[in-house]
Every structure is written in structure tokens, then in C-alpha cells.
Amino acid sequence: MTTLTTPKDLLAAVPFLIGFNPKDSIVLLSLNSDAIALAIRIDFPDQIGADELRLLTSHLSRDGADSVIAIFYSTEIGQRENEIISEVLAAINDFGLSLREVITVEKDRYRSLICEDLSCCPSQGNPLPELIDSRIAAEQVAQGRPIPYATLEQLIDSISPIESDDELNELISSVELIDYEKDAIAFQRQGASAVDEFMKEFKSQGLVRDKAL
User: Fold this and answer.
1) What angle do CA 162, 165, 168 make, to 5 degrees?
2) Quick one: 106 and 31 in the same domain?
3) How far, in Å, are 13, 54, 103, 106 from residue 10 at the CA level?
4) Is residue 1 part of a domain?
5) Same domain assignment for residues 148 and 183
6) What is the three-class DSSP state of 114?
7) pLDDT band, residue 182 (cuts 50/70/90)
8) pLDDT in tens, 74-125
């Protein structure tokens, strides 16, 4: 399993967890014994009420999580965004879950709200790393996972039903039906099965009693 050790690792892992590169989003990762149990993404709201906060925190604790990583993506983080961030973090704390890490991503820069070391987490943030250049991406691809979609819209398109192709349908309908009674491949399969049964009986008994074989 891939180990995440830095904010850069976390930011590179998020697209693989949700399937696309988030924009104007809130991403919450619940942790159970230091392992990611659940990833939740919602659109960054104009406002958020008590019911929505209660629903979020209940989902986070469903798998027995003991802590949370919160990542806030926005093209601009102003007073309204900071108020929503504070409300989300307060709701998580009030629910009894500890905050392992809190990261804001504004345009192409990120910063940790928990780290107080300005040498690694300056107030202006750090440049957002390219996903394709990250160690996490290399490990995920090596494990057979595809590169995440660039946007949510692309992800939705990938799982949406395709339009009917009249030309393809006509081509399929023109293919002649297989007559399995005269199908040579079917006879080959029967022959292969007979040889297989012959060898099984010979190995187990030293001779073959079934004359049909």
C-alpha cells in the first residue's frame, strides 16, 4: 500500500481516491489506524448549514474513523471561504474526530493550516506539484490504476451511456447467426474436452474404461 508522508503526497493521492482532479471542492479523508477509510468530496458551497455538517461528520465516522484530513480547494480563498472552512473544521472537532491535517489549495498553491513552521509552510503557500511528476502517481500507475480525469465533467462523461450508433447496429445485425450444430469450433471444444477426460481417467486408474472416449 502506498504510504503518504507529506502534503505533496496527500495532494497527489486525492485525484486517485476520487477519480479526478478536484476544483472548488472540499475533500475529507477519514482515517482508521492511519489508513484512509473513506474519501468524501463535495462542491465548495456558498454556505453550509447544520444539517449538511451533521451529514458529513456522520459519514466520516461510519467506518470507525478516529481522525480526518481536510483539504479545501478554491480558486480564491477569501472571507466567505474561510468562514466555511472554520465551520467544517469546528463540526469535525465537535463530533469527536481529531484533525490530522488541514490543507488549503488556492489556484496553483497550497499550504497547511496546521503546520507552524514557516520554512516549510510559508504563509503564501507552496507551488502545487504536477500530478504526473509525483511519486504517488508513479506508484499508482505501476499498480495498474489509470491516471485520474482532469475534471469532474470528464469523469461523468466516461460513465454516461453512449449514444446509439446506427451504423454499428446495422453492421451487427448483418452478421449471420452461428449454427452451433455445424460450428467447427464447437466440435474442437468437444474434442478437447474428450482428451481432457481421457487423461484424467488414465492418470487416476491407469487405464480408460469409457469406450466413448
Assistant:
1) 125
2) yes
3) 5, 25, 9, 16
4) no
5) no
6) coil
7) low
8) 999 999 999 999 999 999 999 999 999 999 999 889 999 998 888 888 888 9
